[in-house]
Structures are given as C-alpha cells and as structure tokens.
Amino acid sequence: MPASQTVQRKTTVAFNQKFTPIAESCKPQLSEWIERPVEVITFVPYPSTWFQCRAVHRMSIDELATTPIGKRDEFILDFQTHRVGYLAFHLDGTGKSIDAPARLRLTFGEVPLDLATDGLGACKSWISTSWLPDEVINVDWLPTDVAMHRRYAFRYVRIQIIDTSQQYRAFFSDLIVRAVSSVHPRVFNSIPPLKTSDPLLQKTDLISQHGPRRDRRLWSEDHRLQALTNHATFKDFNLDKGCLYIFAAVVGSDGSLPACLFEFPSLCAASYYIVDYDALFGVMVYDYTIAPSDFDTARELCPTVLGSLKTALCHVKSVEIPRLGSLPSSGCRYAWAPLVLSEAAATKAFYDSSTGVFVSGPQRQVSWLSQAWLALAGVLPLERCKQLLLTAMSDPAALKPLFPYGWTTFAEALPVCGAREECLSLLKSYWGGMVERGADTFWECFDPEDNRKSPYQDFRNNSYCHAWSCSPAWLLRSVLSS
Description:
The radius of gyration is 25 Å and the shape is globular. By secondary structure, it is an alpha+beta fold. The protein has two domains: about 5-30 and about 185-480, Glycosyltransferase (Alpha/alpha barrel); about 30-180, Jelly Rolls (Sandwich), CATH 2.60.120.260. It has helices at about 20-25, 60-65, 115, 185-190, 200-205, 220-230, 235-250, 275-280, 280-290, 295-310, 310-315, 345-350, 370-375, 380-395, 405-415, 420-435, 470-480, and strands at about 30-35, 40-45, 55-60, 75-95, 100-110, 135-140, 145, 150-165, 170-180, 220, 260, 270, 350, 355-360. Strands 1, 2, 3, 4, 5, 6, 7, 8 and 9 form a nine-stranded antiparallel sheet that branches. The two termini are about 40 Å apart. It is built from 17 helices and 14 strands. Strand 11 (about 260) and strand 12 (about 270) form a beta hairpin. InterPro entries: 6-hairpin_glycosidase_sf, 6hp_glycosidase-like_sf, Glyco_hydro_78_N. GO terms for molecular function: catalytic activity. One of its GO terms (biological process) is carbohydrate metabolic process.
C-alpha cells in the first residue's frame, strides 16, 4: 500500500471477552441453493459500449455437454447476473485412452474486462495479486466430479484447457454453483418495491441490495453503509448488532478501534487505523439503536463509543470529551461524535467568505466532501449548508469524491439540507450511470470518464460488487423519504 495511504495502529488490543459471545450469537445461518449457467458466450469488440466489448451467444449449456474439448480450447459460462459460491461440474473424456491429467485454468469474472482483455495474469498493482479470482487445477482421473473449494464472486467463468494429451478430449456437464448467502432469494422477493415510477431508480434500488461478495475482512465504515441499507430493506438487525460487538471486542488499550478486523482463523484486529472510521463508530451505534429501538445495546456500547473518540479528538484543539450516559434525545445523529463545531469555530477555521464555501489546507482546497461533512454536522443553518453543497457542485475545480463511499456522503447531505431533487439527480447520474453501463452490482470505483479507473493502479484488481457502493436503497427508502 502506498505510504501516503497507510497509518499503522500503534496500540495493543484489550480483548473484551464479554462481547465476543454476543457477536457469535448474532451470526446468521447461511442459506444455500443451486444456480446454473444460462449459456456459453464469447466476447467480441464493440467500441461503443462501456467495456468496449459485448457478449454474443456461442452455444447452449446442453450443447456444451456434448462438445469434445481439447488442448488450447476454452469457453466462457454466463450466469446472467452476479453469483457467489462454489463451482462444481462433471468432467468426462473420450478417445483412445485417458492417459494424462486434464490441466485446467479457471477464471471467475465480474465484468467483461476480466475476461476480454489479455488476462488477469498481466495485472500489475500494489495490492496483492493473490486477490485475483483464477486458479489452475489438475484433474487426475476421468470421469469424475470436480468441486472447487474456494468461494468466488462472479458472473462469468472462463475455463481454458491448458493440456490433456493427444489421446483424448474432455466433456463438461452438470455445471452448477452452490450459492451461499446470509439472505435467501425468497427474502429479496419479500421486500416491498420502491415507491417510484422512475424505472432507473427502481433498478438502482434493486441492484444496491446485492453486494458485497468478496472481502475476507470486516471494514467498519463499509459495514456502516451496508447496515443502513440493511435497515431499509432486509431488516436483519442481529447481523448489524453482531458486527458492532465484534469491533467493540477488539478495542485498543487507548480506546481506539481498528479500521478493519479478521474473524479467521481467530478474531484479530488489523493494524490499519483510519481516524474517520474511529470517530464514526458512535454514529454506527446510534443508527443501529434507532432502527430496532435497542437501547440496551446502546448503553452497553457507550463506553466503547467514548473511547473511540479519544484519538480523533487529539486532532482538535481545546476540546473536552463530554460525559455521555445515554443517547442524545434530539438533534443531528453525528452529534454522537462530539466533533461538531460551533458556527463561529467553523467559519473562523475553514469558511471562505469570498467564495461561500469551506476550504482546507495551504492551497485552500475546495472539496465536495468537506462541504458534505460540515453540512451533516450542522455547523451552519440548513439554507447556508445547502448553498455550500450547490456551490461546490457548480465549481468545475472542486474536488469530487473518487469512490461511491464519498458520493454517498454527499448524496446524504443534499436532502438533509433541503436539496432533494439535486440528490435524486445525483443518484441517477452516478449510480444510474453504472446501471446504464451494464452493472448488476455496484462497483468499488466508478469514474464516468474512465472505464479502467482503479485505486490499485490496475482495474483488474477492482471489486465490482462492493460494500460501500450499496447505499442507494438506503438513500431512496430512508433519507429521501423522511
């Protein structure tokens, strides 16, 4: 990871043994079901599309089962939409004798670029390439059933026959995915449809309910946006509660919380520290508490909330941590983190009266996110906050967010300040822009001007079904409806 993006958490973990069994008791029972590919396809160049290629039908799944496939042959399965689970298939052979193993390369693709370029093997990024969803297997004896042991998130599967022998060719049949999720398909069908006549918003709402599917660790701020979407749709409050307790179980000796943690092979706090994530833990607790009205959990986690603010408050001069024994009875939900600045302090430190926006740094940078966070903190009257946001939006030099996470923060601030129509327009242009470009889950990174934008130097290591991108369902169903 680039040095400019790394902060190591310099504290020992004070495990709270009381919280781990609570977190464990909240774990969902995973559902399983069988999914099957829809067709065999190939990708052909098509410059006018977002990924500059398109899928065309090659053969049916039934035809594949009777098609002999040999060395250097390959085919691509299309499951039509994103799947997560374990691939399995039956492999047989025909010929004089099956006198050598079948060596296969399997590549699991989320978007066409994963398969239609020169391959994942050419990926060069600073994040580990072991994330890349491909592997080579050797099948020693045919006929046999092959079951992949790793869980993958994908829409497409490319199977390449690296080698067999000159004596035989292979047949692939009974291709399935044993899909796994904490949400069974029938739960999706039970969610009331979004109350809108706009088909793009309807589709955006549905897509945001699917994801994420790949990460091995729990990131706190990613979880926050997932939890808010969960509150507005699935309402699995135990899942949210368990995540809060598992973070509280690995609190640092200085009161800080890690940006992310690992559950396997045993519970472990990661060394990464992000001050924003630490300060927002109280917001996460507040949002959970209000959703199912679980004030007992709020009271139990209140000391953790106060501890999580200590490191954040080290960056603010002359601030005393207040004593909080219960939830704020009214006001802004971000008051959980007592970093809310008074109007006088905010205007003195950051406000530029000549431009009418907040600025930061020696170059007096104007950022969409700065305006959004200060607006959400309620440092100015709502009408003035609305003007901050609209001024930033109209300034071509203002820095826009790079990821859907930042766009969510800005989108949330707009209706809070009375700019409801502007929020709807932003949702349609940004998340709707992904929909119009073929997304069936929302992406980790999206730049409408660059289809290969990546925080990792290479788009092939991007996630295309990402936690912090799932927020439109929450924005549409909760923020915009309030």
